[in-house]
Amino acid sequence: MSSRLRSPLVALFGGLALTLPWILSWATGRAAGFSTLGTVAVSGVAVLGASFLLAWGAETAEKDVPRAFAIAVLAVLAVAPEYAVDALYAWQAGQGDAQAANLAVANMTGANRILIGIGWSGIALFSIYQAYARGDDPNVVTTDNLLGDYVSLDRDISLEIAFLFAATVFAFFVPLGGGIGGIDTLVLVGLYAAYILVIIRGDVEEVEEQVGVPAYLQSKPFAVRATSVLTLFGYSGMLIFTAVEPFAHGLEALGLQYGIPEFFMIQWIAPLASESPELIVTAYLVNKARATAAFNALISSKLNQWTLLIGTLAVVYSISAGQYGVLMFDEKQAAEIWITAAQSFFALAILVNFQISVREALVLLVLFLSQVVTEFYFIRTMTEAAAEASSILLLEAYTVLYLVLTVGLLATRRDEMRAVASLTGTTIREAVGGESEQPAD
């Protein structure tokens, strides 16, 4: 009996079962009748189930397509709700709602900073904790000093680091125009398209030995594997798209009941909910002693949000307005973009040596949380005008702090930067000049 319960099919149907209450209520229209707490509970469980299905699909796909491409697809599907929320605000801005443009930028910058401040730091700390608890993650290296223990990352992420670095440098210039326009779209979407073209031409790597559902599906013929992967991706993507928005809005409503300001909820609580599939997937990978794959997924998510998400806002805005336009935002959101770019710059400086230590993860986490908590204090204790003025100064101060830390770190890692550039160049040359292997059974 116990062996049957450990069967991959039991796990697969178990993940599916988590999604059924939501999908059935959503399909029949009964979800609208849930209480706020009921909506959060049912949609939240569905997001959990969809995250497992998505992770299994990505791991299975690694047998037939380049791992980076499988992870890129996973990352796009996992953060699809974030695109939906931001597209909604951009659409409303195109209809004449000026405040909606600021909300679109606030939601986008909040999501990006959460991904690094909580995602990157949290997964690094969780990886090291799991290695201590189980001692079976070859990617975690222990030292004589607990703060010096670190996660060692695959050098193949040099490509993602290089493209993310280019997008981050460009992002510093976005606020100078006072809005997000056609040039921003061309550059940022172009960067992501170039990245996809490179990774899709890569070779299929030797698959790591899998267990559970991925191992079961990888043992099947190619036609069955391909159908399973497409089904898992399609079903989980649909679930995430339909369940995360009610989940986020339910959390917003609960927060408003406790007096948390709406703008703060939109910038931080809603993105945290929309990023939850990504965080669940990466925690699942860490739990399987695949810390490198988890970080690959997080970095890929950051890259697509920092390029596609920003770049498509102007497109949605222009379609809504019925003519080409620039998504304008105020001084506060310009400061939000700058601090988001500076945080990204600092995080890349940390990863440029393909490691992230306990000390570095804690610095990322503390810097993120201290800024958010301080700004929340301003909102709750000051008038609206005073809080906004203080918040802008706070954002600018943290931007400078991130940049100072980045410059200091990169000054000691010049050789690592050259190594990333060299590895990226090699990867691009091989993709342009080489031929991808055909998948085999």
Explain what you see.
The protein contains 17 helices and 5 strands. With 441 residues, the protein is an all-alpha fold. The strands form 2 sheets. It has a 3-stranded antiparallel β-sheet. A hairpin with an 8-residue loop joins strand 1 (140-141) and strand 2 (150-152). Helix 8 (182-200) crosses helix 17.
Shape: globular
For the residues shown, what is the average pLDDT? 84
Instruction: Order the strands across the largest sheet as they lie in space.
Output: 1-2-5
Radius of gyration: 22 Å
Query: Which structural category do the helix and sheet elements fall into?
Result: mainly alpha
Distance between the termini: 32 Å
Order of helices and strands: HHHHHHEEHEHHHHHHEHEHHH
Number of strands: 5
Q: How many strands, what sense, and barrel or not for the largest sheet?
A: 3 strands, antiparallel
Q: Could you list the spans in which at least 5 consecutive residues all have pLDDT below 50?
A: 1-5, 435-441
What topology emerges from the helices and strands here?
Elements lengths: L1 H4 L2 H21 L7 H26 L5 H12 L1 H15 L3 H37 L5 E2 L8 E3 L5 H14 L7 E2 L1 H19 L11 H7 L3 H36 L4 H13 L1 H12 L3 H31 L5 E2 L2 H21 L3 E3 H24 L2 H28 L2 H20 L8
Antiparallel strand pairs: 1-2, 2-5, 3-4
